[in-house]
Amino acid sequence: MTLIFGHRGAAGGYPENTMLSFKAAKAAKADGIELDVQMTKDGELVVIHDETVDRTTNGTGFVKELTFEEISRLDASYKFTQYKGGSFIPTLNEVLEWAKQQREFIVNIELKNGIIDYPKIEEKTIKLIYKHSLQKRVIISSFNHYSLVTCKEISSEIETAILYMEGLYMPWKYAESIGAKGLHPHYHAAKGEVISQSKSHGISVRPFTINDTQLMQRLINEKCTGFFTDFPETAVELKLKGD
């Protein structure tokens, strides 16, 4: 069964990476959500995609140069003005506190440390995962594959997944070499052979970001492990039709 993950929640219709968006994905019956983690000046893990707050909030500046108190006051409604005044940047702790109450709900945490090297972001993230006893329901992904190796060294039981944009030769073998159980390719790199060969080697494949309904259907038909979409309600509807 192909699992549906709400990309930054239900980012097609709600302010991305906010509790509004995550709850909308859950209401759409998504199997899980994907979120992004950066770190504030005072070491708080916050859920936001960009290294700066400029695009998605009414503030400016790098996340790493703002305290959590400063970030918590920002409006994160982005282009969805109907949610102005009700959308904020959540902490990772806040999201996991909510997620642990959602039965069989999976959280994919993307560590955003490919550009900025946040000190001990892996240890801090994993500590929170264990605090909420979510180690069996969390996947840690990153474009920084060194970081994924560090995560496996800290905890062998939390699944890690490799994010990548372009074709890798026999990516299932690369995943095995760094202890990852998942591949999260851009959809252009998610060819049918990659999906089938990876699955036969025990490696899950979950492409991003799948918003085209024909592509959704193709991945469901190919029994891809899962995929990330801004429109989980559409993907869930397609999957239910197939069942």
In angstroms, what is the radius of gyration?
Answer: 17 Å
Average pLDDT for all residues:
97
Please state the structural category: alpha/beta
Question: Uncertain spans, ≥5 residues at pLDDT below 50?
Answer: none
Total DSSP helices: 9
Q: Topology as H/E string? A: EHEEHHEHEHEHEHEHEH
Alpha-carbon distance between the termini? 9 Å
Strand runs, count = 9
* Percentage of residues assigned to helices: 25-40%
Largest sheet: 9 strands, mixed
Query: Strand content of the residues, in percent?
Result: 15-25%
Principal-axis shape equals globular
Oligomer: single chain
Quick recap:
This protein is α/β, with parallel strands linked by helices. It has helices at 19-27, 68-72, 92-99, 121-131, 145-154, 171-177, 192-200, 213-221, 232-242; strands at 3-7, 32-39, 45-47, 106-111, 138-142, 159-164, 182-185, 204-205, 226-229. Strands 1, 2, 3, 4, 5, 6, 7, 8 and 9 form a 9-stranded mixed β-sheet that branches.
